[in-house]
Amino acid sequence: MKIPAPQRILAVAGLCAAALVALVVTEGFAREGGQEITLPMEAVDPRALLSGHYVQLNFTNRLEANDVCPSNSAGEWVALRPENNIYVAAGSADSRDHAERLGPLPVKGTFTCSAPTPSQDGLEAMPGWLALDLGVDRFHINQADALRIEQVLREQRPNEETRAFAVLSVGRDGRARLRALVIDGERFDLRWL
């Protein structure tokens, strides 16, 4: 028995739609069930002409003169530890077990670090930085809010208090998933529907 083409097309379209709904529901449960963490953000251009308006996420911690870069084995796991109201990298590892020995929250990702430079004859000290790459890089939002967030990010100065934060959920699988942005105390939640 041969099934007519229109019915086959509808069946395939229905399966694709069901798979998409299952993916959205599964990711939603993983996002809600994970451990919520907050990371500071720095400025990056938030818009692209063909992909709509979004905020480009750049998780960067400033390192002061007495700070040092954590151990970086270039592994695929980053150990995070709480510091004040945010999470910072404690080191990287090749496995989840090893990352758990470095810090209480292992997450899939990498980081790069530039140590602070001490002052020298005629040169003042320069702060360092640590940038996390957790596989989360964009937050799509309407144009007005994207432009407002861009302005806040660009106004941030190295010696001032951080005004922009990303709220992530780290699931049991170790993946970071974006939940919201907090800009000047206002929370912008990720909405799928």
Question: Which properties best describe this structure?
Answer:
193 residues; alpha+beta; 2 domains; 3-stranded antiparallel sheet; 3 helices; 12 strands; 34% strand
Overall description:
It is a single chain. This protein starts with a helix and ends with a strand. The protein has a four-stranded antiparallel sheet. A three-stranded antiparallel sheet has the order 3-8-7, with no helix packed on it. The longest helix is centred in the first third of the chain and has 29 residues, at 5-33. It is built from three helices and twelve strands; from the N terminus they run H-E-E-E-E-E-H-E-E-E-E-H-E-E-E. The protein has helices spanning 5-33, 96-102, 143-155; strands spanning 35-40, 54-56, 59-63, 77-83, 86-93, 105-108, 110-114, 128-133, 138-140, 164-170, 176-183, 186-189. With 193 residues, the chain is α+β, with helices and mostly antiparallel strands. It folds into two domains: 1-33; 35-189, no CATH class. Helices cover 25% and strands 34% of the residues.
